[in-house]
């Protein structure tokens, strides 16, 4: 999603929307394409990591990207900065409103100029989801890829090399 192009749809396969860097703002969404019923009801999450590959990072200091839990059942083939699906507006542009997202427990942290694989520990988010809180989770939102004049870019579901696309790993017991 890109604030500079608020009506442009960037995605079509319901995984990660391509991020477009702009000084005004750009956000990404990740949908794991599974629900709480994927796991037995008494599951205990041992570990859960959301991985992204950072291929450009011009930050001169450490950068942090929080992961917010997305509460709208967004449609990638229709989602824009302004709308989560055609005809349905986000509470605030870029999926930043209180009705669009809730604070998650995870985030990514990058060193100055660092590239490569980075993970966010989403164990608590997944466990809470399985336990029924929040009831409606439609993935995570990563607000902003433009920080104080610097940009960081990461792979998405359209990255040519499939080995550099985001992924989620979950280990559980029951």
Report, as a whole number of angstroms, the end-to-end distance. Answer: 38 Å
Helicity range: under 10%
How many domains would you count in the coordinates?
A: 1
- Using the CA coordinates, give the radius of gyration: 16 Å
Described by the principal axes of the CA atoms, the overall outline is globular
Q: Estimate the strand proportion.
A: 35-45%
Oligomer: single chain
* Rounded average pLDDT: 73
Summarize the biggest pleated sheet. Answer: 5 strands, antiparallel
Helix segment count? 1
| Total DSSP E strands | 11
Q: Outline the low-pLDDT stretches.
A: 12-26
Structure classification: mainly beta
The succession of helices and strands, N to C, reads EEEEEEEHEEEE
Describe the structure.
The chain is mainly beta and 174 residues long. The chain has one domain (27-173). It is 5% helix and 37% strand. The protein is built from one helix and eleven strands, in the order βββββββαββββ. The protein has one helix spanning 123-130; strands at residues 27-30, 44-57, 63-70, 83-85, 88-89, 101-110, 116-121, 140-143, 146-147, 150-154, 167-173. The termini are far apart. The model is unreliable at 12-26 (pLDDT under 50).
């Amino acid at each position: 999603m890109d604030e500079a192009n608020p009506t442009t749809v960037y995605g079509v396969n319901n995984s990660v929307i391509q991020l477009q860097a702009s000084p005004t703002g750009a956000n990404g969404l990740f949908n794991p394409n599974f629900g709480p019923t994927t796991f037995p009801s008494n599951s205990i999450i041992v570990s859960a990591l959301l991985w992204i590959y950072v291929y450009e990072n011009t930050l001169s200091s450490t950068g942090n990207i929080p992961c917010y839990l997305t509460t709208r059942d967004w449609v990638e083939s229709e989602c824009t900065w302004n709308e989560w699906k055609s005809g349905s507006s986000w509470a605030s542009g870029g999926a930043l409103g209180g009705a669009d997202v809730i604070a998650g427990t995870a985030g990514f942290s990058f060193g100055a100029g660092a590239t490569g694989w980075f993970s966010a520990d989403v164990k608590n988010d997944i466990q809470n989801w399985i336990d029924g809180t929040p009831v409606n989770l439609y993935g995570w939102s990563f607000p902003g890829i433009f920080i104080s004049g610097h940009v960081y870019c990461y792979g998405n579901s359209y990255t040519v090399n499939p080995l550099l696309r985001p992924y989620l790993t979950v280990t559980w017991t029951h």
